[in-house]
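Lab meeting tomorrow. Look over both lines:
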Amino acid sequence: MTQKWSPRNWSRRTRWIVGGVSLLVVISARPTWHLWQVSQRDRGSLPEIPAGFADDASRLNLTKVNRVWDIPEDLEQAERQLAELLNLARRDRLPVSIAGARHSMGGHTIAPDGVVINMRPFRRMKLSESKDRLHVQAGALWEEIIPFLDQQSCSVAVMQSNSSFSVGGSISANCHGWQFDRPPIASTVESFRLMKADGTIVTCSRNENSELFSLVLGGYGLFGVILDVELHVVPNARYRMEQFLVPADAALPTYDRQVRDRADVEMVYARMSIVPNPLFREVLLTAFIREDGDIPKLHDPEYAQLQRAIFRGSAESDYGKELRWTAETKLQPWIAKRSVSRNQLLNEKVAVLQNRSATSTDILQEYFLPRSGVVGFVDAMRSIVPKHGCDLLNVTVRSVNEDHDSFLRYASQPVIAFVMLFQQPITADAETRMQALTRGLIDSALNHGGRYYLPYRLHATPEQFQEAYPQAARFFELKRQHDPGELFQNHFYRRYGDPPK
């Protein structure tokens, strides 16, 4: 006689296995369904910029221009034709702006009705025999530089957390990174060659044309065209990761105790939980520790599709934000147990997480606080961000040492940087709300002894800009001394530099 099927006929072990599998299916069903929905929506592509117009990474600065001019790859031809172009622009009273990867967000690479110089074809590079300096043309992207240096067992000293930016753009914004115990990128610049408005080429360093050197570093293309740069580089290295998940009020003490004074720490960042109610309740502190052994080979990022789905799934979804935080605090440490090279950490492109929607865009903001102002600023963020209904996707925290090189400096003392990313619908109402949020955060940063970063949306009032950068009046005065015809312009200059209309 055939025995009928019944759970009572199973062994205890079988029931445990089936029960466990059933529970796993139930637990994984919601995140699987959520990520599948995200992947179905995430099939768009960025719209092309119409001929006769220019835009930047914000996709909110579409501007009519006279032309976009691609610099030739050949050095001699490029310098000759560029000087001729500047001469024609002066004659025809056309403003000139300079563009690389165009990852600024306030029209810093665009002059209305002007000439946009596309520096991207200008990307040759050469490493010194001592392997401590890189000679590189301004249009090169870090994603092109990293593999080149990797072959020579070298690495970039200071750069942003993504590799999709150009050298010229990074220097013009005086970027900083998550390289531990370092000032901004200006500190790694030995010299650069600059074509001025009259077509002459000068070399700028701390000892030669030192005023221009200081002004161009973080000068947003207002003094001339950076042609090529001598950058200090460092050896590539092997790292292991250590992480500390702590309540927000324990983040700084944990940093002091576990990270700050360690000689083997090379790269550090923290990420704040953006799960609402309560916002910023936890902080994940990540440190990369130098270790001995063979350096892993450079390769394309692993799990990029999963990483993208989890990240994009946090937009407009409280559940997605919870899922992402769980993945970063529970899954990421398990995946990242292996050692990694410095170059591998730097070799992540913006496209991995980039917003491809035609109806929304991602907007960066950044605020620099002295340590004494951090707690007050975070408390203010907790009320300001929800108040304006903007969709916060990320807050990364880094330390930046004092900048001794650039004129329009944001780090006039050691500071803690809060890098914030929002998803913003491409609507007038969303722009109004983002402007109000930004001004509120700027006011809070100023009230706590801090500043905001200049490459992003131009939402700061002129009064806020002047308070944050009291050296700005002199900066623009010197701009007009070095460029009396005000040939080099952009939206940033027209907003805050008070050029003649």
In short: The domain at 239-468 is CATH 3.30.70.2520 (Alpha-Beta Plaits). The chain has a mean pLDDT of 93. The two ends are 99 Å apart (CA to CA).
